[in-house]
Input
Amino acid sequence: MAYLEMDNVSIGFGPPSNRTEVLTDVNLSVEENEFVAVIGFSGSGKSTLMSLLAGLQRPDKGEVRLHGSVIEEPGPRLGIMFQNYSLLPWLSVFGNIELAVKQVFPKFTASELKKHVEHYVEMVSLTPALEKKPHELSGGMRQRVSLARTLAMKPEVLLLDEPLSALDALTRAVLQDEIIRIWEEDKRTVVMITNDVDEATLMADRIVPLTIGPSATLAQEFPVTMERPRDRANLNKNPEFMKLKNSVTRFMVGMNKESKELRVDNTIQMPDIKPYDFMPPTRTSVVVK
Amino acid sequence: MAESAKDKVKYKILKALDVSGFTAFDPVIRLIFGEEPQKQLQAIVKYLVIPFFFVLACLWIWTWMGPRHKTKSGEVPTPDIVWESAVINDTIADREEIKEQDFLLEGVEREAALAEVTKEYAVLSEEVKRLKELVATAEAEKAELEAKAIGPIQEKHDALKAEYKLAEKERDEGIAAISEEVAAGKADTASLIAAIRDDGVATDAERAELSALKSQIDEIRSQKYKPLEEARKSYDKVADAQFFMKTRLEFLDKRNLTVKLDEAQSKLDGYMTDLASAGSAKDALKIAKRAVKAEESVDRLEGQEYASAVTIYHQTKRSIFTVFVGFFMAAFVAIPVGIMCGLNKIFMACLTPIISVFKPVSPVVWLLIFQIVVGAFFPDPENHALLNFLNELPLISSLEINPALIFSACTVAMCAVWPALVNTALGVSSIDQDHINVARVLRLGFWNRLFKIVIPSALPLVFAGLRISLGVGWMVLIAAEALSSSDGLGKFVWDEYQNGSSLTFANIIMVCFVVGIIGFLLDRMMIVLQRFVSFDGGGTSV
Amino acid sequence: MMTLKKWVTTAGAALALSSLHGEMLDLEKDELKFGFIKLTDCAPIVIAKEKGFFEEEGLQVEVIAQPNWKQLLDNVINGELDGAHMLSGQPIAATIGFGTEAHIITAYTLDLNGNGITVSNAIWEQMQENDPALDTDTPAHPISAEGLKPIVEEKLEEGEKLQMGMVFPVSTHNYEIRYWLAASGIHPGFYTSEDKKGFTNAQVELSVTPPPQMPATLESGNISGYCVGEPWNQQAVAKGIGVPVTTNYDIWKNNPEKVFGVNAKWAEENPNTHIAVVKALIRAGKWLDETDDSGTLVNREEAVRILSQPNYVGADFDVIKNSMTGYFYFQKTDKREMPDFNVFFKYHSTYPWYSDGIWFLTQMRRWGQITEPKPADWYHEVAKKVYRPDVYLEAAKHLLEEGHIEESDIPWETDGYKPATDEFIDGVLYDPKDPIGYLNSHEIGNKDS
Output
């Protein structure tokens, strides 16, 4: 029996007359301490899949199980890290994490609580920003707070919903390394959703593509057998990495074409015209009022 | 290092300006700190100097237009007259204070004050006599001038009137003659009708001419004679001051608290000595009874306070107090109900009809309803426990809380409750799905979810609603006070209107400014509060 | 001291004592609130406060302006006010239940006369045309409504009714303008149990307008004339928007005007306070009517100074001064001496006469505010229920002993009825002992057998 599994899960939205099936017959099993990356195009139902795993939504059909028992509601055992951080803007970094910790470990004393929170803030290297409010932080920092909050709950399963998609490439790389480091330090089961093949290949033990919706399902998976730690700098010279990356990419692109052919084309072709006077917006420095 | 400390101060001030919404003064601060003087000066001209001159221009237009718009209640007062009326109101308040002091003065101080006021009163009395004569002469002058101007017109009018009377008589005779002829069959009816018609036309024309002359006379009479106006004005002013001195004399002498106390005490002492030497039981009882009364009146006097007339400051204080009472009542209802509406669709559905029907109801209607409803709770306001309790609280005891204040506050609350309620409901129901997911993942219980997620996230909208509520409440209050004659600025304005004096118009405009400025300050206060609770920018660290 | 008091009360029970006139009364309540309407005839209340007469009785009084007569009465009924400046008809109407029902009593008549009827300039011109005798700067008084009659009839032919204003359904002004109109054969309309506005059969419709709004309403053309107290007639002259044609002195010489009304329950609970208040008011009235040897009113100018303060009447000094110092402007050119325009004390005016109450009752019956015919006894009963000379005389006795008034100031021996008088504009005899007969002696109005 797998650690975390989805068994013939289907889900759809909308009234019967106008129903969209989002996921159909999804089967997935994740072993303990395994790092699985689910990869898919935007709109293919990745976030829905994550919601199902986190228990935020119940499937119409089939079951999602952890340790063999059905997940009925969300909880701190399934630590989900949301795509758009979901920090509470009125609380500081410390406050956001504290709220979660207090809830999960109600028996902590004040000092234990503080130590615990500070530990995780340090883990994501945000100690200087401890008392800052989310709006005072950059996107990457917020994502780190979100990560620290999720980790601080000590979840059995870490569910990462496109954690890095909103970030610029550099920050992204830093955070990827950080997540890997933390995961390696403190092994646990991870399901990560991403739309970036490089990221998946770099981080995961296994890559599971999600087919294009509606009625998306999981397709044939690609195991990643590269040795850890994986050296980002030399990855592009690593033939195994390149091969895997290419085959995943090929698979994904192919799937896309296929779906395009299958789909009745009812879009109007727009002429490919560029505006005559197209200028990149100049950044004018704003003079203070 | 010094530079950065200076910068810190600067940014603190700038932030304070930003939070309080006075960003227009930014460049002034920056200029003081020597930051890009050229640019700051430009900004000052643009955002301070030009608006200043615009306001000045408005005042000038007002000054120019005012006297040119004549109403039957007099001219529209110019800014200086409005200012003058503000000064007069201030004087009234001052005088009340002085009278109160006089009432309480004791011993040597009282005697000194009495001597001084007596002297001043004598001086003013002389002055009043002089000015009275001046007014009389000016009146005579005016009458003479008037007579001179009116004389010829009046003569012309009288002559014309006599002439027209004759003419009319003639015409009447003519018509009589024609009608006789018609009756005799010598003339046709058409000529009679024509004659009557002509008579009507002629009469109308004559009448018009006469009334034109008359209105000319009226015009001359209603013209102001400047020396007389001035003489009257200065007479009024001095007579007013003289009267004030007279009142002061009373309060320093016969109506002074210590004087009255001494008097009562000596009366009491007298009775006590009499009592000691009373001849019979009957006499003793009689005297003792008097003594008890004297004693009681001493007690009563000791507790006596000066009964001050209501001043504009008192009215303003009371209005502000009332609006806050109403506002807190509104908030007290609106926030919990709003939260419940936001949390529960059924609850919202239940309240929607009530909100939609009652929201547009005019404050005047609410006032009348509350007047009746609240009145029922206070059958005997003098001896009502709650009112007595409130009126003995230290800070608000001077405000005299009475049912009128309570139903004015209720009216304010009734009208102010809706924006706060609707905004709170909106804030709660539009809470970010992500935040709810966080709550679900954390398995927060109902109360935790409410206090840790729902309320904080709705707070900015709640405060936005409260801000509107306070604004609405302030507007409503003035109307409610005017209508219910509950003490406050509304009553002040209404009383002024009813006074119909020459200062009425100026006082009303003055109140317009007072109400406006207080409303503006209340709004600013709410903006600052709103900035403090909003989590997406600034505010929090000032 | 406490023992002294105890001794007095126990001994007092044993020994019957003669009353102690000339001593401070046992006040049940010493902080009072009185209401008034911004009219010059509130003067006695204001003067009693400002000149310290209340203070001398040990009373702390607050005098509060009220927005209209209805609210004033409501505030007296609900206890917000302890007493108020009231229209004579108000205590009567409240007691018999016309309008708001409550037992209101009065022990003090504030003043006589003091009202005027003003018509708009346009109406005045037409009246002058109809009656050439009026077409001078100083027409002979009294002016009757004869000159108005053709105007009313002309309007009626056009299907319109002339609109005029008065201040309250049970105000003296309502009865006075009705009297004036009816005396010249113009029907001012009946009240019936359905028609509470009093428009039934009206040739002229009378509607309620608060006094301060009268000039503005006249100017805007909504009404063509009004009957109101001062300063609102003089205001019309000052602003040039109307002409006062007559005063109520001409309609009924020395007619009662305002009274000081209190709730009967209040009076019952605070008998000594009530007496103390009336004492202060009598002194204020006397102060207001004080004259020097030449008969000039000496204190009126100071009274005007006080009344013109914004928290009292608040109108301009010069405007209030005219009528209060014994002058009345009928037109800008027509200033007449009217020494009795405001009477606050003379002629035993402050005594609460039963006969005054009966006159108002006859007028209420005449115009249908009292819908049912009533026997003569009823008139006397109601008057005795509302007017309380006992309180007045008690207060006067105290004052006499204290030396504040003279024996001749008070009608000690009266039965409360003034002698019959025919000093009305139409010369009809009013005998207060025969209300039904009086009612039947008018041509227009309800008649009872």
Summary: Residues 278-289 of chain A have pLDDT under 50 and may be disordered. Chain A touches chain B through 28 residues (CB under 8 Å).
